[in-house]
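Dataset card, provenance and construction

Sequences and ligand SMILES were collected as paired inputs. For each pair, a complete structure of the chain with the small molecule in place was predicted and serialized as structure tokens. The example below shows a pair involving magnesium ion. Curators did not alter the output after generation; any descriptive sentences attached to a record were derived from the structure itself.
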Amino acid sequence: MSGDLLFFIEISLAGLGSGALLALTALAFVLIYKATRVVNLAVSEVLMLGGYLFFAFAAGLGLSAWVALPLSILGGGLLGGIVERGVIRPMLGENPISVFMVTVGLGSILVGMAELIWGAEPKSLPAFISTTPLFLGEAYVSRKIAVAFVVAGVTISVFLALFRFWRGGVALRATATDQAAAYSCGINVPGVFSVAWIVGCATAAGAGVLLGAIGGISTTMGVFGLSALVVVIVGGLDSILGALIGGLALGLIQSWASTYLGGEYTSVVTFGLLIVAMMIRPYGLFGTHEIERL
Amino acid sequence: MTAETILEIENIELTYKGSIQALRGLSLKVPKGQIVALLGSNGAGKSSTLKAVSNLLSLENGELTAGRIRFNGKDTAGLSPHALVRSGLFHVMEGRRIFEDLTVEENLVAATYALTGRGGAPADFEQVYDYFPRLKERRHNRAGYLSGGEQQMLAIGRALVARPSLILLDEPSLGLSPLLVEEIFTIIAHINRETGVSMLLVEQNAAVALAISQFGYIMENGRIQLDGPTERLMADDDVREFYLGQSGGAENRSFRDIKHYKRRKRWLS
Ligand SMILES: Nc1ncnc2c1ncn2[C@@H]1O[C@H](COP(=O)(O)OP(=O)(O)OP(=O)(O)O)[C@@H](O)[C@H]1O
Ligand SMILES: [Mg+2]
């Protein structure tokens, strides 16, 4: 195999790894949007908080990574539940822009709190994934990225299956399509809202731990969520499949762009893609739009 | 001897967004096991009445400012809509409101939430498919691709899955061909007879509604104007003329239209 091709494969694998994390974060946006029609910008900061919680549990309290990880995910879920009940639920039915702005404000508060508690300087997480490299054939992959890829991939597949085959998935999709009709079928609609926020924020926190394990944590790591937001806007705000495919695609594209064009091109390419995609399909590549009757 | 009452609405007043009054002291009753028709023209307040009963009003910024509603003897005020459904009151909303992105069967699965906390037998989709064989053929299709009539069947099918004791049916004839209306109303009557479920049936198509109901209410402007057993309503001259589109003799059509208009105005005033 030629060196160039091998190199291309290696950076593509790395891109797929970060793409899987993008997809996982995008999934958090999708879950929450689907149920409550709220674009929760604070997903980015919940992701950051997940990283810091892991830091606090593992480095601060000295807990084993396998205890700290579920605790961090739980912490994210708890935060999501509290925010939904305390702030979002009373605002349902208000102007979507107001609700969106509330999530923006919430994100800033989380960043401020993290800075107050842990300081602004970046930290690295206690290692819990081995650093011995992995080889796929001849191609080198960082083990951390491979683990992130597998975990994110499995999580998303589980979600896809639940959505399709579990009764709760039907309830969520029904609520997403028509709230009044969902109520009329006996579905506990506010309960669906809560579950979506809890699971969405837990997912974001989990993604934060994986991301932190790869690149360390900082109070600005929430910008990663912005890329994930691009994924959901391009893939369709209400489409899990869109989040998966869009996340992997953007991960690949970002990896290629930063390697072959230079790191400064990453966001140019990312947001250029956003604009082009919006011009072609305003509701997202996989998002639902009105079905045309045959 | 009077039959037991499953639904009792007493003097309700309803306002939307704190200012638009849609119901002004409306009262009606549904006896157990019967079909009661609620008729009236556009904007009379029929759908508002049903939404008041199923507590779906709050989703549209509507509020009951007076009166009360009792289902099975219990006041429904303050009950969440899903709790009410789970206690046996199913609202088939105007415009069918099926979940278009879900398959036919998933729509029925969604309705199984109505059985939550009731114990009893598991949901019976076969019963739905027995009444509506066409839904069975299309069970794995996306519901959004069904024809209007099939969507109405699915909306009623969801109610069947919920095994309610009272169904509120809002204009099942909406947008359907006369033949299909006939078919669906025949099935509605069968469901009532065979399962014993009570129904409050809202319709603009008075002829078909009265044909399958035992009692009828006619409303205008948020109030009941006239009520009575179906035979009496069908014999009433005004009802025959305005709601059943029949008139006494072989008058000249244009004269009839004018008279119709005048009498209609009187009715509405
Ligand atoms: N969500 C709402 N907000 C404000 N006003 C409403 C709302 N829904 C209904 N109304 C008003 O309440 C009145 C009664 O409406 P309703 O839908 O109950 O009539 P209806 O008898 O069902 O008519 P139709 O036969 O056309 O369905 C109308 O004047 C309508 O404009
Ligand atoms: Mg109506």
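Derived descriptions for this record:
Residues B 16-17, 20, 22, 40, 42-48, 60, 94, 204 surround adenosine-5'-triphosphate (ligand 1) (CB under 6 Å).
The interface with chain A takes residues 54, 56, 59, 61, 80-82, 85-86, 90-93, 97-102, 106-107, 109-116, 142, 144-145, 158, 162 of chain B (CB under 8 Å).
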